[in-house]
Amino acid sequence: MEGNYSGQVSARGEIIKLTNSKGIVVDQRLTPSEESDSQKYLRITEIHFAPLEGKEFEFIELTNIGPDPLDLSGIRFTDGVEAELTGSLAPGEFGLVVSNPSHFPGLKIVGIFSGALNNGGEQLTLRDAAGENVLSFDYAEEWFTAVGNFGYSLALRDKAADWSTWDDRLSWATSSEVGGSPGVDNPVLYSNDYESWIQSFFTESELEDPFVSGPMADANGDGFSNLMHYAFGIDPEILLSGSFANVVIKGEVISLQFDRLMKTPDLNLTVQISTDLEDWSSLATLTDSETHVNGRETVTYSSPISLSLGSQQYLRIRVARNP
Ligand SMILES: [Ca+2]
Ligand SMILES: [Ca+2]
Ligand SMILES: [Ca+2]
Mean pLDDT across the stretch 114-129? Predict the structure, then answer.
């Protein structure tokens, strides 16, 4: 059987259907998967699309997850940014595609792109030498507040995941630090954001209802907003009592000690002091923190007002969401 066709038969394997003039399928078969090495092993692991220093600091990080060196010649970005890749990547090695290599001294550069990564999100397409898609996916600004607004990068969680999951928000996270981790493995302790954090605690319909899952809602009616639960890293369905914070007195210094969720760039947590319960302008300073394995830390905030002054003082924790 012969005939003309348009499009390209995917090397990843797909179902090809032969239909007759009435549109009825008369035959179909699954084409064999003959993925190129780059389709199998080349992966985008990090995207920094909104650096605080400006677009010249944007980067896309790639890695070779395969067992052998990977030749990058002929591989290109065709959507989002345009770039020809060069050189090769050893197994496990990272390479960067950047707009200005002088901002990445000492790091391996495998491509220079023209254009810029859109801060509003866009489609990125990486094609192999045969024109086959290695990865093609959309990222979106609204996925993570701190990536769009506070200089964090979009960090891939699992580079061994199936290629089809790259345009799923849940495959990504906010980088551990501002500026991300160009050229090295993404640190596993990602930064949190309220929208991602609540996903584990509410059903799909609850997530659509701001009166249940919104930051100012109090899902379990314990008097603490969901945002407060997020700040302390406590399930919004678990009752928070006022006793989660301890007052510690050492000599003349009064401190408040409590556990909180680490790495919350979308949150502004302060401990305020008042001597009259009206003026809360004073701030306690963070004097100690101890990291725990579960992504929480015990923090100690100390009042600058010495107990020897004899006045009463009140401490309160204030949590606000950064826009
Ligand atoms: Ca940008
Ligand atoms: Ca990285
Ligand atoms: Ca609550």
Answer: 94
Longest dimension (CA), the chain: 97
Q: Residue 315: which CATH number?
A: 2.60.40
Other CB atoms closer than 10 Å to residue 184's CB: what's the count? 13
Q: Does any domain span residue 124?
A: yes
pLDDT, tens only, 162-177: 999 999 998 999 999 9
CA distances to 155, 211, 290 from 182, in Å: 10, 39, 27
Ion ligand 2: residues, CB < 5 A: 46, 61, 181, 186
- Ordered DSSP codes for 103-118: GSTTS-EEEE-BS---
User: Which contiguous run of DSSP H or E holds residue 207?
Assistant: helix 204-207
pLDDT tens, 256-268?
Answer: 999 999 999 999 9
Same domain (yes/no): 70, 169:
yes
Find, among 91, 61, 54, the residue nearest to 77 by Cα.
Answer: 61
Residue 282 pLDDT greater than 90, yes or no: no
Compute the chain's Rg from CA coordinates. Answer: 26
* Separation of CA 167 and ligand 1 centre (Å): 18
Domain span at 160: 37-191
Stretch (H or E) spanning 320: strand 314-321
Instruction: Evaluate whether 186 touches 179 at the Cβ level (below 8 Å).
Output: no
Spacing, Cα 300 to ligand 1 middle (Å): 38
The domain total for the chain is 2
Residues 6+ apart with CB under 8 A from 2: none
State the ligand closest to the CA atom of 186: 2
Q: Work out the number of other CB atoms within 10 angstroms of the CB of residue 122.
A: 15
Output the average pLDDT for the chain.
92
Q: Taking the complete model, does pTM exceed 0.70, yes or no?
A: yes
d(CA 145, ligand 3 centre) in Å: 23
Q: What is the CATH number of the domain that holds 41?
A: 2.60.40.1260
